[in-house]
C-alpha cells in the first residue's frame, strides 16, 4: 500500500505543471456561466401527465380490470388531493417485511450494493421529450416508498430507436418512513440531463411502510430546448489523467525500480504476499461486483483472486440492469464456471440482452445452477427457456414473475426441470396444459406461485393434481385465480397437509357457506399464513376454526368481510400467540374503536384497518 501511495505522489508531482491549465478552465467556465446568465433566453416549461404505462414489476389489481392496477397512473389524477384507500390508484403487490419473513421468500444474494434499495418499479411514457426540470409523484396513501427516479434516452414512440439506450438517475435516496398516511405531492430535486426524455422510471421500496402505498399520477415538467448552462461541462479529472505518457500508464512503477546507488529494489505486493490465499479471498468477497472488477486491474495477485470462480458462486446482476448487455455477460462468462445462484431480474430489456448472448452464458455457466431469478425479463423467449431446461438439470428455484410477454407454449419446457422446488409464475400467460405437465414431472415442488395467471381455465383441476403429485408443498399462491371452487380447495387441503402458506386473496368463487374454510383449517395444522382477501363471506365460524386448529398462524388477511365480529377476533388473538399480521380493513363489523382496543390488548400484532375519506 505504501508503495502505491508513493507512486501516486510521484505522478502527481509530474503533473503539477499542468495545474495552471485546470485553473484557466475553471476561470473560463465561470466567465461563460456569468455571461450566459445575463443573456439566458426564457424557455417555456412543459407540464405533462403520463400518456402510457409501459412496464411494471407487480400490482395489487387484476389483469382484467382497472382497480388498484398500475394502468391507473396514465393520465390526470383521479383521487389527489384526497387521502385514503381508493380503487382508482396504482398499488404494488406487497408492503412491509411480511413477505420476507415467509418460508416462500428466496434467500438474499450476497454482494448486493448497499445503495440498491429497489423492490418494484414502473415505467411511464410521456407525449413529448423534454429536458426535465421536475418530476412530481402524487401519492395518496402511505407515501414514502419511492427510492429512485430515472430517465431514459429512448423515445418509446419513435419508429427508429437508437442502438445505444442510456438510463440516468435523476434522484435516489434510501427508504424513508413517513409518519402520516395522508396524501402528498412528492417532488424531489433532480439532476440535469444532457438529453431529452419522455420515458421515466419510478422505483419503490415499501419495506418501511405500515400499509400499501397508493400512487395517483406522475407529472413531468421540462423544457423542449436544452438549457444553455448544461451545454458547457467541465471534464472530469480521472486518475488516469495524472500520467504524462502512455509509457507511464503501462509501467507506473518503472521509476522506482532502481535506487540511488544503482541497486535494483524488488517491490512486491507488500504484506499481501504473506497472507493466506483463503484470507485474501475472504477480504475481496465483501466487495461489490463493480469494485471486484476494478480491483482486477491493480496487480496480478489481486487479479488472480478477483477472477477466482469461487468469488462468483452467487451473482446478482439486478442492481446493474441499466448497464447489462451481451458484452457484460461475455466478460463474466470465464469467471462463473462454478455459478450456483444467478439473479438476472429486470435485465436485458429493449435489446440489451439477446438470445445469442444469454444462451452462450447459460451453456458455459449454467451447469451447476440451483437458483435462477428472471423476474421482468422481457427478452426471454421460448428458445431461452429451452436452453435453461437443457443446461440447468439441477435447477431448484426458477422465478419468471411478470414475464408476461412469454408465449404460453414456452412454459412446457419447465417440466424438464424435475428437481424444481420453488417456481414463481406470477403474472405470466401459462396455460392449463403446460401447468399440468409441470406438476406431472416436478413432484419435488415446495413453493408455487400462480398469482394472477389468468390463462388457466380450471384451477380445480390444478388443485387436484397438486394434491396427488406434490404432497410436500409448503406454500401456494393463488392470488386472484378466478375459478377455484370448494371442491378443488377440499382436495388441496386433503392432499397437501404440510401447507404453511396459502394465498386465496380475491378468489371470489369460494363461499364460506360451503364449509370450505372450516375444512381447510381442520386439515392444515401447520398453516402460518392465510390470505382470504376480499372474500365477503368469511364469518365467525371460520375464524373460530382457525383459532382452534392453527396455533402457528402468523399472517391472516380477511380484508372486506362483513360477517366477522370482534369476539371471534379476540379468540383468534388469544389462541395464536405467534400472530404478527391481521388485516381487517373494510370489515364492516370491526370499527376503529375495536381495532384500537385489540391493539392495546395484543401489542405484538400489527392489526391493519384501512380507511377511505
Summarize the structure.
One of its GO terms (cellular component) is SCF ubiquitin ligase complex. The chain is α/β, with parallel strands linked by helices and 613 residues long.
Give me the secondary-structure topology:
Layout: H1 2-14, H2 19-39, E1 45-49, E2 52-56, E3 90-91, E4 120-141, E5 146-152, E6 167-172, E7 184-186, E8 197-204, E9 214-223, H3 246-250, H4 277-284, H5 289-295, H6 300-306, E10 314-316, H7 326-333, E11 341-343, H8 355-365, E12 371-373, H9 382-391, E13 397-399, E14 422-424, H10 432-441, E15 447-449, H11 459-469, E16 475-477, H12 486-495, E17 501-503, H13 516-523, E18 529-531, H14 540-549, E19 555-557, H15 566-575, E20 581-583, H16 592-601, E21 606-608
Parallel strand pairs: 10-11, 11-12, 12-13, 13-14, 14-15, 15-16, 16-17, 17-18, 18-19, 19-20, 20-21
Antiparallel strand pairs: 1-9, 2-4, 3-9, 4-7, 4-8, 4-9, 5-6, 5-8
Helix pairs in contact: 7-8, 8-9, 10-11, 11-12, 12-13, 13-14, 14-15
Amino acid at each position: 500500500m505504501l508503495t502505491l501511495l508513493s507512486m501516486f505522489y510521484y505522478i502527481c508531482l509530474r503533473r503539477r505543471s499542468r495545474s495552471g491549465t485546470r485553473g484557466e478552465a475553471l476561470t473560463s467556465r465561470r466567465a461563460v456561466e456569468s455571461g450566459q446568465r445575463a443573456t439566458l433566453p426564457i424557455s417555456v416549461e412543459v407540464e405533462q401527465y403520463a400518456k402510457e404505462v409501459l412496464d411494471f414489476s407487480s400490482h395489487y389489481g387484476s389483469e382484467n380490470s382497472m382497480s388498484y392496477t398500475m394502468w391507473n397512473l396514465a393520465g390526470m389524477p383521479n383521487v389527489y388531493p384526497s387521502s385514503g384507500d381508493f380503487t382508482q390508484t396504482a398499488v404494488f403487490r406487497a408492503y412491509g417485511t411480511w413477505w420476507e419473513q415467509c418460508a416462500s421468500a428466496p434467500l438474499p444474494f450476497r454482494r448486493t450494493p448497499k445503495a440498491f434499495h429497489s423492490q418494484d418499479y414502473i415505467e411511464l411514457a410521456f407525449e413529448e421529450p423534454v429536458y426535465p426540470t421536475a418530476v412530481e409523484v402524487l401519492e395518496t396513501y402511505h407515501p414514502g416508498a419511492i427510492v429512485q427516479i430515472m430517465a431514459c434516452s429512448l423515445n418509446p414512440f419513435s419508429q427508429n430507436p437508437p442502438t445505444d439506450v442510456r438510463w440516468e438517475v435523476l434522484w435516489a435516496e434510501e427508504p424513508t418512513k413517513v409518519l402520516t398516511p395522508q396524501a402528498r405531492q412528492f417532488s424531489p430535486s433532480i439532476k440535469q440531463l444532457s438529453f431529452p426524455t419522455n420515458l421515466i422510471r419510478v422505483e419503490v421500496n415499501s419495506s418501511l411502510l405500515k400499509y400499501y402505498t397508493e400512487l395517483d399520477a406522475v407529472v413531468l415538467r421540462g423544457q423542449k430546448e436544452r438549457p444553455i448552462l448544461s451545454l458547457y461541462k467541465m471534464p472530469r479529472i480521472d486518475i488516469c489523467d495524472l500520467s504524462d505518457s502512455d509509457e507511464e500508464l503501462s509501467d507506473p512503477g518503472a521509476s522506482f525500480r532502481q535506487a540511488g546507488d544503482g541497486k535494483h529494489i524488488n517491490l512486491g505486493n507488500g504484506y499481501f504476499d504473506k497472507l493466506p490465499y483463503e484470507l485474501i479471498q475472504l477480504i475481496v468477497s465483501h466487495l461489490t461486483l463493480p469494485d471486484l472488477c476494478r480491483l482486477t486491474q491493480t496487480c496480478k495477485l489481486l487479479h488472480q483472486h478477483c477472477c477466482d470462480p469461487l468469488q462468483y458462486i452467487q451473482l446478482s446482476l439486478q442492481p446493474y440492469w441499466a448497464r447489462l448487455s451481451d458484452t457484460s455477460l461475455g466478460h463474466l462468462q470465464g469467471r462463473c464456471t462454478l455459478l450456483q445462484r444467478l439473479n438476472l431480474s429486470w435485465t436485458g430489456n429493449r435489446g440489451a440482452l439477446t438470445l445469442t448472448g444469454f444462451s452462450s452464458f447459460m451453456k458455459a455457466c449454467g451447469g451447476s445452477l440451483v437458483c435462477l431469478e428472471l423476474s421482468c425479463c422481457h427478452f426471454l423467449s421460448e428458445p431461452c427457456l429451452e436452453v435453461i431446461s437443457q443446461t440447468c438439470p439441477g435447477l431448484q428455484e426458477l422465478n419468471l414473475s411478470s414475464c408476461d410477454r412469454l408465449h404460453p407454449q414456452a412454459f412446457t419446457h419447465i417440466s424438464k426441470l424435475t428437481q424444481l422446488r420453488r417456481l414463481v409464475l406470477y403474472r405470466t400467460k401459462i396455460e392449463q396444459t403446460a401447468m399440468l405437465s409441470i406438476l406431472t414431472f416436478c413432484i419435488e415442488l415446495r413453493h408455487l406461485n400462480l398469482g394472477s395467471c389468468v390463462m388457466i381455465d380450471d384451477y380445480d383441476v390444478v388443485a387436484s393434481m397438486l394434491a396427488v403429485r406434490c404432497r410436500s408443498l409448503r406454500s401456494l399462491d393463488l392470488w386472484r385465480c378466478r375459478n377455484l371452487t370448494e371442491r378443488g380447495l377440499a382436495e388441496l387441503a386433503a392432499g397437501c397437509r404440510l401447507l404453511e402458506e396459502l394465498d386465496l386473496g380475491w378468489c371470489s368463487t369460494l363461499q364460506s357457506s360451503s364449509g370450505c374454510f372450516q375444512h381447510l383449517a381442520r386439515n392444515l395444522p401447520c398453516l402460518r399464513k392465510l390470505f382470504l382477501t376480499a372474500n365477503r363471506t368469511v364469518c365467525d365460524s371460520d375464524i373460530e376454526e382457525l383459532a382452534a386448529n392453527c396455533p402457528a398462524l402468523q399472517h391472516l388477511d380477511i380484508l372486506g368481510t362483513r360477517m366477522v365480529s370482534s369476539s371471534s377476533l379476540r379468540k383468534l388473538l388469544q389462541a395464536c400467540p405467534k400472530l404478527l399480521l391481521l388485516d381487517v380493513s373494510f370489515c364492516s363489523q370491526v370499527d376503529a374503536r375495536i381495532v384500537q382496543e385489540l391493539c392495546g390488548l395484543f401489542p405484538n400484532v400489527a392489526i391493519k384497518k384501512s380507511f377511505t375519506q
